[in-house]
Amino acid sequence: MIYSFKGHIPVVHESSFVHPLAAVTGNVIIGKNCYIGPGAAIRGDWGEIILEDGVNVQENCTVHMFPGRSIRFRESAHIGHGAVIHGANLGRNCLIGMNSVIMDDAVIGDECIVGAMAFVKAESIFEARQLIVGNPAKAIKKVSDEMIDWKTAGTRLYQQLPTDCFDTLKAVEPLRHIPKDRPKQEDFYRTLQEMKNFKL
């Protein structure tokens, strides 16, 4: 659902997928290979929202700001299910955990990881590669190469997802019985802990 507002029409690159149950309003620019999940609301009614290439905004996320502001999510930023970003800027290849809240004028540096359910106060500034957790959120250590490699691999799945959605997603009537030839799904990504255990 794409809406104009006061003359502003969202700009969405043709390689990006916006789910029909998402709402993108007004002064929003979405770059290449982005994924916007169902239930996401990206409201550029009061200010500008820029999503650079490869960003994903997952299911039930909210992106908004105070009037007159412009915010930017840098390339490959990864916003987990249910997160709220209100007037904050996100660095390149960062990860925002599920149900976290990032408040106005906060800056999340490149390759930071924000833990699930973290609360980042307004005007907080975090340098690159910080692991940020808690309420109020604090940086507790540097993000390791192993952690960022795992995050980057997960984001690549979301950068492939727009193509997969364009190619295979369609509205259907449900089946009433489980078919014998029901396809199996691939096991192509592991949790960080599973990867560590696998390497031992």
From TrEMBL:
<protein>
    <submittedName>
        <fullName>Transferase hexapeptide repeat family protein</fullName>
    </submittedName>
</protein>
<keyword id="KW-0808">Transferase</keyword>
<dbReference type="InterPro" id="IPR001451">
    <property type="entry name" value="Hexapep"/>
</dbReference>
<dbReference type="InterPro" id="IPR011004">
    <property type="entry name" value="Trimer_LpxA-like_sf"/>
</dbReference>
<dbReference type="InterPro" id="IPR050484">
    <property type="entry name" value="Transf_Hexapept/Carb_Anhydrase"/>
</dbReference>
<dbReference type="Pfam" id="PF00132">
    <property type="entry name" value="Hexapep"/>
</dbReference>
<dbReference type="GO" id="GO:0016740">
    <property type="term" value="F:transferase activity"/>
</dbReference>
